[in-house]
Design goal:
The protein is α/β, with parallel strands linked by helices. It has twelve helices and eleven strands. The strands form three sheets. Strands 2-5-6-7-8-9 form a six-stranded parallel β-sheet, sandwiched between helices. Strands 1-4-3 form a three-stranded mixed β-sheet, with no helix packed on it. β6, α4 and β7 form a beta-alpha-beta unit. α6 runs parallel beside α7. It starts with a strand and ends with a helix.
């Protein structure tokens, strides 16, 4: 790990990356792509040492409350978070200043912060987004080696629902010739149904590869699944989008199952939900009262 000082922390859409780089080892990770200009080894985690002060300053200046987010580039619950605590500190600030929060993770470590998630959700909205790719636990350990297994994430989703924290699942990526099967999709959807998730985001059955992520992905295929890299190259060449040959049938299964079980499956509707700030009625009344003091 190494430390840097950052000039800012919140993006124009109120997202933040408290860390850069990751140690989870997912073989398909897009964040390894060269277009993100990461000037250090991916596993050498960059820690923004002034991130929390920058965040507090930004929240103090905001004219209106909004949803804050993290996890789009680096999983917020990498093992290093237990030592550094930047995510927990960010959640504490959101709670202190009355902002909503949403995060994306593949780790059951999110349950460590269940107390803060509940406090935020009592005032406004706190949504945990969890990525699920692979129902098969053995395959999960191969392609996502240093992260909570799918079953562990499923158990976390159930605990979050029990605590009244809304959840959203990212069903991606689906790797051609590996987990693009009806059995896999049905298994993941059964977890989502049992965990009573609000919605499932799915952009299609496949994955994307760019310069940087493609090379790493193919190295891992050679190591884990000898001969599969050649099948990928023959099928897709250097395409950015690698769509599963089973994609149409699997997408039909996905939409039909979500519809039957009242799970939101419109990406647009879910993103609108995630970005919409809501203030619970009792706290709205308190805010109005405070404004007259």
């Amino acid at each position: 790990m190494h430390y840097v000082k950052s000039k800012g922390i919140l993006s124009s859409k109120n997202g933040m990356n408290l860390y850069r780089g990751c140690s989870h080892g997912c073989i398909y990770c897009d964040s390894r792509s060269k277009c993100y200009h990461m000037e250090h080894d991916f596993e050498d985690i960059e820690i923004k040492e002034n991130a929390i002060q920058l965040l507090e300053n930004a929240l103090k200046r905001k004219r209106s409350k909004c949803m804050l987010s993290t996890g789009s580039m680096t999983d917020p619950y990498i093992p290093l978070e237990a030592q550094i605590g930047s995510v927990r500190k960010a959640l504490s600030l959101a709670d202190q200043y009355g902002f909503g929060f949403t995060l994306i993770t593949k780790s059951s470590r999110v349950l460590r912060d269940l107390d803060l998630l509940k406090k935020i959700n009592e005032k406004t909205k706190c949504v945990v987004q969890m990525t699920l790719t692979t129902y098969d636990e053995n395959l999960c350990r191969q392609i996502e080696p240093n992260v909570s297994t799918t079953k562990e994430r499923f158990q976390a989703l159930k605990q979050l629902h029990k605590a009244n924290i809304p959840t959203v699942v990212w069903l991606c990526p689906i790797l051609p010739f590996l987990n693009d099967t009806e059995e896999n999709i049905k298994g993941i959807l059964s977890y989502c149904i049992e965990a009573k998730v609000y919605g499932i985001i799915c952009f299609g059955m496949g994955l994307t590869l760019r310069e940087g992520s493609r090379e790493y992905f193919y190295q891992q295929l050679d190591r884990l699944f000898p001969g599969l890299k050649e099948q990928y190259i023959q099928s897709y060449g250097s395409q950015y989008e690698l769509n599963s040959p089973n994609g149409d049938a699997l997408m039909q299964l996905f939409h039909q199952t979500c519809e039957e079980n009242h799970i939101v499956h419109s990406n647009q509707k879910i993103f609108e939900y995630l970005s919409a700030f809501e203030e619970k009625e009792q706290f709205k009344q308190l805010s109005l009262f405070d404004s007259f003091l």
